[in-house]
């Protein structure tokens, strides 16, 4: 979360878990930037990294997602200010991995540019002038319009163009708007099968500038398939049997999806456009962009490894993944535009290619190091990859990282504990020293007495119980002979039901319904309380317990949570509707950015609800008015503001599953003692939130601030 908006993460719904390595990617690029051989993280983008004043990592030791939601109301500042939240996968000590001690950081992205660049790897100035890339584009950085193919270049490289006799019957994308250097880029790739007609499209993928997959569709060829080319395409006869989508459907969808000034990016894109039988006026071809002499071209697989540090088209996998290839081509174009021809020429790709081929001959494949490739004295000896160490990277650039808290680094780089330091002392020191450092790690702690197993188990049980109560509603009274099926159907229109039971202990029958999502339970309370269902005027309410007394406050705060801004929940969908159907139905809604369709964990089938994310909050408000009461394919829709971000939504399901096994009857041992412990924890959390608020407000503008809840295991 920057003091100025600089972080963009294209994650929504369930896709919100990141690994330690991905966090490392983010921090490394934020701290080092392009000047020191770091590259954009694979999972998000930082815009204007050079404007960052610094990076601050706040570590809340012994705390996890469990604490965040148990004390959600106490974390008042944290949840209102930090707009991006992700589930961090369990890992070893984060500090140790950050400093390279005992960390097994083998990820390709983690290895990028961590070794210093040797004089052998960067060509001399005179050699640079002879580089085909410099000869074609010059040394200065240019905007994207300088790299789009001219009409003559398109004709020369067999691209479909308007007016060509070969392109009779081809569909024109009608993207005629003037291109500028801020025009949107889209990566495109197709996989083909050989038919009686020739090459025909069997799969199409389109990704946007953030790498999000907008289209990944199988296509039924018009002619009889002669060869599926499964080894390369990944397409089999069985895969295409149920497919009904035809080329004309894809052409129509692409025309609708592409803005009027769209620039398509691909590797040898002419073949894809020919197979699609489409004409597009503005393209960047990465096989031509990374120019070589004598008309030769680099393979996409090689460029992705050498430039981006990414393995694609793996031999272990059956066929190519067009979405992966489209994304790789797009990122290569973005790298070229952002870094400029001189930086690309310095990679010395021609020499890298030669070295790789020599290594293949001697059956020793080298590990390519993007942007900082070190050549060995003997070409047939694969280069050795040095262990990445974030601390060394910072020190090489002249930056001295600041580490404050109960854990300190000794001379060997190992973390040592200093339990005498209080959170207040750490805060005071941070307020003095953070402005003087460009990379700081500030550690706060709840104290070892608060991570006892019985306290954590009690917290887990209480949070699980409260989540269960929030997901549960009681409805009734009903007549003795009420229709159970019609009641379940009515409440099912609010969202997916996990359990449905009849309560018979009462004078008249009631039903107890546990939903899978918070929004469904809240929608049932709001829309069916006081309504007539199965011939009875019923009351709908949640369980009344001590823990639920602040339910209304919690629901309101969740609704106002910054992560739910512009997101609405829609229920009552027919399960026969596909994601494509919903995209088309909701396409008329203004500023719709993303549609997330939850699926059942076991069957893989989608639920009767979805989440819609809008670019503007007002557009979400307007959509609610339109959708409520809207009939789609004979089914009446219900909607409301979202309550649970993707990571919480998934966590609820996990807690639900755990509670379902244990049952809802929870025994609280040593009640008074645990109540005191919880009260003490609540006070400490409130103080921690205040410390974060004070530290955050002291930061310079354009500071990237990350808060970690690493947990205890």
Automatic annotation (TrEMBL):
CDD domains for this protein = REX1_like (cd06145), RRM1_NEFsp (cd12273)
**The UniProt record lists the keyword Nuclease:** yes
Entry annotated with the keyword Cell cycle: no
Every copy of the RRM domain together lies at 471-545, 566-644
Lineage top rank: taxon: Eukaryota
Give GO cellular component annotations, separated by semicolons: nucleus
Q: Gene3D superfamilies of this UniProt entry?
A: 3.30.70.330, Ribonuclease H-like superfamily/Ribonuclease H (3.30.420.10)
The molecular function GO annotations come to: exonuclease activity; RNA binding
Q: Which UniProt keywords apply?
A: Exonuclease, Hydrolase, Nuclease, RNA-binding
Q: What name goes with this protein?
A: REXO5 exonuclease
Q: Which gene encodes it?
A: Rexo5
């Amino acid at each position: 979360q920057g003091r100025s908006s600089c972080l963009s993460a294209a994650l929504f719904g369930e896709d919100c878990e990141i690994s330690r390595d991905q966090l490392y990617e983010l921090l490394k690029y934020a701290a080092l930037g392009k000047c020191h051989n770091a590259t954009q993280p694979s999972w998000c983008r930082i815009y204007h990294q050079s404007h960052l004043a610094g990076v601050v990592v706040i570590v809340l030791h012994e705390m996890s997602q469990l604490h965040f939601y148990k004390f959600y109301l106490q974390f008042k500042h944290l949840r209102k200010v930090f707009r991006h939240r992700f589930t961090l996968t369990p890992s070893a000590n984060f500090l140790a991995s950050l400093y390279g001690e005992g960390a097994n950081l083998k990820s390709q992205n983690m290895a990028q540019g961590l070794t210093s660049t040797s004089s052998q790897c960067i060509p001399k100035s005179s050699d640079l002038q002879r580089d085909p890339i410099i000869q074609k584009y010059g040394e200065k950085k240019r905007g994207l319009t300088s790299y789009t193919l001219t009409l003559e270049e398109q004709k020369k490289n067999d691209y479909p163009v308007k007016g060509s006799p070969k392109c009779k019957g081809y569909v024109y994308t009608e993207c005629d708007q003037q291109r500028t250097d801020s025009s949107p880029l889209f990566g495109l790739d197709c996989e083909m099968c050989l038919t009686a007609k020739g090459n025909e499209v069997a799969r199409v993928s389109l990704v946007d500038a953030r790498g999000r997959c907008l289209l990944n569709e199988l296509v039924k060829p018009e002619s009889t398939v002669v060869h599926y080319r499964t080894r390369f395409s990944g397409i089999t006869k069985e895969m295409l049997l149920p497919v009904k989508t035809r080329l004309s459907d894809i052409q129509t969808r692409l025309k609708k999806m592409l803005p009027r000034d769209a620039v398509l990016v691909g590797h040898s894109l002419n073949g894809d456009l020919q197979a699609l039988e489409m004409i597009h006026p503005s393209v960047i071809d990465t096989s031509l962009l990374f120019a070589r002499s004598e008309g030769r071209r680099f393979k996409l697989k090689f460029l992705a490894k050498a430039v981006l540090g990414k393995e694609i088209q793996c031999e272990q996998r059956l066929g190519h993944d067009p979405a992966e290839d489209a994304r790789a081509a797009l990122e290569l174009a973005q790298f070229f535009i952002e870094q400029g021809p001189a930086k690309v020429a310095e990679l010395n790709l021609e020499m890298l290619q030669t070295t790789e081929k020599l290594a293949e001959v001697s059956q020793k494949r080298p590990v390519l190091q993007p942007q900082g490739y070190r050549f060995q004295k003997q070409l047939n000896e694969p280069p050795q990859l040095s262990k990445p160490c974030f601390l060394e990277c910072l020190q090489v650039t002249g930056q001295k990282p600041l580490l404050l808290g109960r854990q300190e680094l000794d001379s060997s780089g190992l973390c040592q504990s200093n339990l005498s330091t209080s959170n207040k002392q750490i805060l005071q020191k941070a307020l003095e020293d953070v402005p003087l450092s460009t990379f700081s790690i500030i550690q706060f702690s709840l104290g070892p007495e608060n991570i006892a197993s019985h306290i954590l188990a009690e917290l887990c049980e209480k949070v699980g119980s409260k989540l269960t109560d929030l997901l549960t509603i009681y409805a009734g009274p009903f007549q003795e002979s009420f229709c159970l099926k019609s009641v379940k159907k009515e409440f099912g229109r609010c969202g997916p039901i996990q359990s449905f039971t009849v309560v018979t202990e009462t004078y008249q029958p009631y039903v107890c319904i546990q939903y899978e999502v918070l929004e469904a339970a809240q929608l049932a309370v709001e829309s069916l309380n006081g309504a007539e269902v199965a011939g009875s005027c019923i009351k709908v309410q949640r369980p009344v317990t001590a823990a639920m007394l602040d339910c209304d406050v919690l629901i309101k705060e969740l609704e106002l949570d910054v992560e739910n801004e512009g997101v609405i929940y829609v229920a009552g969908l027919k399960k026969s509707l596909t994601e494509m159907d919903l995209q088309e139905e909701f396409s008329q809604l203004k500023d719709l950015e993303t549609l997330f369709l939850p699926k059942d964990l076991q069957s893989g089938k989608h639920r009767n609800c979805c989440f819609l994310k809008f670019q503007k909050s007002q557009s979400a408000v307007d959509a609610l008015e339109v959708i409520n009461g809207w009939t789609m394919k004979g089914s009446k829709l219900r909607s409301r503001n979202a309550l649970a971000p993707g990571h919480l939504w998934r966590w609820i399901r996990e807690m639900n599953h755990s509670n379902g096994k244990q049952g809802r009857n929870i025994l609280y041992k040593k009640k008074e003692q645990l109540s005191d412990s919880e009260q003490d924890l609540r006070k400490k959390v409130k103080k921690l939130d205040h410390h974060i608020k004070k530290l955050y407000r002291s930061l310079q503008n354009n500071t990237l601030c990350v808060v970690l809840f690493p947990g205890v295991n």
